[in-house]
Amino acid sequence: MTNQEIVSYWIQSSDRDYKTMLHLYETKDYCWSLFLGHLVIEKLLKSFYCKNIGTVSPKIHNLYRIAELSNLEISDEHKEVLVTLTTFNIRARYDDYKQKFHKKCTESYTKSWIDKIRVYRKWLKERQ
Questions:
Q1: pLDDT tens digits, residue range 23-38?
Q2: CATH number of the domain that 37 lies in?
Q3: 8, 24, 50, 106: least CB-packed within 10 angstroms?
Q4: Could you tell me the residue range of the domain that residue 111 belongs to?
């Protein structure tokens, strides 16, 4: 695959996950909706990395670290969003975290984070 094909792959995959995230939210599967929200942003960051660094993205899930490695300039507010979104990857996946996370993922909490994911997704796509 060419670098541009890899960038396109990450963007298209992120777009599919975004639709799934919204569907999971609509069906009140809040925990997994936020897990997918993490993947939406991770894949866009990896596409940004590939486009700007010119190599295959690192095989990590820490969103802030991917942004750093991509030389993406982000505000302190964006850093906080990325740090929190990264926790959704862990908390939705492992049983010992899942119970606490499931309780935390109320409709309003999840909607608030989906709104942030939506804004950050748009911001990243504008930089592609």
A1: 999 999 999 999 999 9
A2: 1.20.120.330
A3: 106
A4: 3-125
Q: How far is Cα 58 from Cα 127, in angstroms, rounded to an integer? A: 19
Tally the domains of the chain: 1
Crossing angle for the helix pair 76-91 and 107-125, to the nearest 10 degrees: 120
CA distance 98 to 85: 15
Task: State the Cα–Cα distance between residues 70 and 68, nearest whole angstrom.
Answer: 5
- Chain segment 84-122, per-residue pLDDT in tens: 999 998 766 667 777 888 889 999 999 999 999 999 999
Q: How far apart are CA 51 and CA 34, in angstroms?
A: 26
- pTM of the complete model: 0.94
Cα-based distances in Å from 112 to 89, 96, 107, 116: 17, 24, 9, 6
Tokens of 123: 């911001």
At residue 94, the pLDDT reads: 67
CA–CA distance, 14 with 32 (Å, rounded to integer): 15
Token reading at 105: 């993922």
